[in-house]
């Protein structure tokens, strides 16, 4: 989807600072709802490249996207492609669904036996999402819609009637950064996910903590810049709520077009990152540990018959047996991905720390994405950070995690074992 900036065009609006500090959660929600319900008329009004993805998603997703009604697509403001493959029959929840573009795509991916729930707090967006449900179900060949759209706050899912353990996969597209209560949001996601479920989502992050001026500015908040978390703070938050080993699937830089916004954010660099957070209580350890386990991909995920990418450091070729750490083994054996993998071995004999190789941290992945520009190998959706980036989890972000020159230039570092 192509996006353009209006900031340099004649007659474009000048930014005005918010009338008061937006520290109150209700005020932030009201500001964001107004920005997406009234101020923005289409994705071309955005002041950043956040809604642009550099690499097309899977073929099946592309085909579904082409069929989504134009009214829905034109008012879509996401920053990535959070479309998990192999989700037929699954229950999907989309946080901050907006006009429902991603819900409509997932409705096709899960099939008539699956279900998709979209949640948003903006009436204007929900009206568009609901308007095309029946026609979309008919287009997919279903007897009835497998979608529903609820009004609610992403931090209070219980208020919308979403019960504990009722969802297999939670997706979200550039929304969590808009939340004034991010920890509560993640805790609610953890609650509604079934054991073995996953949060598979794209969002905006920065390589440093955002300046106070940006965090209090209405337009910066609406564009996602003011509310974006420093990526290491986000990793820490994930671990606090129970997502013990966050994985990065893809990352790409976000360009800020507007000069005034650039002044507000200082030297901060922003990225669209697709994260994978698995709910595996008691199975994920703080570090990668060696138990002598192996994993073999069966080649059964639609659209990924030859190879399946778990994250930017794990691409499994069909039929190839690969050594994996205990955490990766758990993600493949005990999550919703289990039907597609054969994992051998258990944790009865610990063999020490699993050597994950250099560069195993999120900041390294972001550095590679930035230096590689539009290139990079591996990953899935957006700019792959393949062999050079880290997958987030065990590294504290010190200088030892800096990307190697080979990875920075071409997006592919020297071969190393999976994990």
UniProtKB/TrEMBL annotation:
Record key words, sorted: Methyltransferase, S-adenosyl-L-methionine, Transferase
Gene Ontology MF term list: arsenite methyltransferase activity
Region ranges (Disordered): 1-22
Documented EC number(s): 2.1.1.137
Catalytic activity reported: arsenic triglutathione + 3 [thioredoxin]-dithiol + 3 S-adenosyl-L-methionine = trimethylarsine + 3 [thioredoxin]-disulfide + 3 glutathione + 3 S-adenosyl-L-homocysteine + 3 H(+); arsenic triglutathione + 2 [thioredoxin]-dithiol + 2 S-adenosyl-L-methionine + H2O = dimethylarsinous acid + 2 [thioredoxin]-disulfide + 3 glutathione + 2 S-adenosyl-L-homocysteine + 2 H(+); arsenic triglutathione + [thioredoxin]-dithiol + S-adenosyl-L-methionine + 2 H2O = methylarsonous acid + [thioredoxin]-disulfide + 3 glutathione + S-adenosyl-L-homocysteine + H(+)
Methyltransferase domain boundaries: 88-218
Biased segments, Polar residues type: 1-11
Family in the record: Belongs to the methyltransferase superfamily. Arsenite methyltransferase family.
PANTHER family, A to Z: ARSENITE METHYLTRANSFERASE
Protein's name in the database: Arsenite methyltransferase
């Amino acid at each position: 989807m192509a996006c353009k900036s209006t900031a340099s065009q004649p007659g474009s609006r000048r930014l005005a600072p918010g009338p008061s500090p937006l520290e109150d959660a209700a005020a932030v929600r009201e500001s964001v709802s107004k920005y997406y319900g009234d101020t923005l008329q289409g994705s071309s009004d955005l002041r950043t490249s956040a809604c642009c993805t550099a690499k097309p998603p899977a073929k099946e997703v592309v085909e579904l996207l082409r069929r989504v009604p134009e009214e829905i697509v034109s008012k879509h403001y996401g920053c990535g492609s959070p479309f998990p493959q192999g989700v037929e029959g699954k229950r999907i929840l989309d946080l901050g669904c907006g006009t429902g573009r991603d819900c409509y795509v997932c409705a096709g991916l899960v099939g008539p036996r699956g279900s998709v729930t979209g949640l948003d707090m903006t009436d204007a967006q929900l009206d568009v999402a609901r308007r095309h449900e029946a026609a979309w179900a008919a287009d997919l060949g279903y007897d009835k819609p497998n979608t529903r759209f609820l009004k609610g706050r992403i931090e209070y899912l219980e208020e919308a009637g979403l019960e504990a353990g009722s969802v297999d996969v939670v997706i979200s597209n550039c929304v969590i950064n808009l939340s004034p209560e991010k920890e509560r949001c993640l805790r609610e996601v953890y609650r509604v996910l079934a054991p073995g479920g996953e949060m598979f989502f794209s969002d905006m992050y920065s390589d440093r903590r955002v300046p106070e001026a940006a965090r209090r500015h209405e337009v910066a908040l609406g564009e996602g810049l003011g509310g974006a978390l420093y990526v290491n703070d986000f990793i820490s938050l994930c671990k606090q709520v129970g997502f013990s080993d966050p994985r990065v699937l893809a990352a790409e830089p976000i360009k800020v077009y507007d000069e005034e916004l650039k002044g507000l954010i200082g030297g901060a660099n922003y990225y669209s990152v697709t994260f994978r957070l698995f709910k595996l209580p008691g199975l994920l350890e703080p570090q990668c540990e060696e138990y002598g386990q192996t994993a073999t991909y069966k080649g059964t995920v639609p659209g990924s018959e030859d190879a399946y990418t778990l994250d930017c450091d794990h691409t499994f070729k069909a039929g190839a047996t690969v050594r994996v750490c205990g955490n990766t083994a758990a993600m493949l054996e005990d999550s919703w991905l289990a039907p597609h993998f054969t994992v051998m071995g258990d944790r009865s004999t610990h063999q020490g720390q699993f050597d994950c190789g250099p560069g195993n941290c999120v900041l390294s992945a972001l550095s590679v994405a930035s230096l590689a520009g539009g290139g990079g190998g591996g990953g899935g959706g957006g700019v792959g950070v393949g062999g050079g980036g880290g997958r987030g989890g065990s590294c504290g972000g010190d200088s030892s995690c800096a990307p190697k020159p080979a990875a920075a230039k071409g997006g592919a570092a020297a071969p190393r074992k999976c994990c």
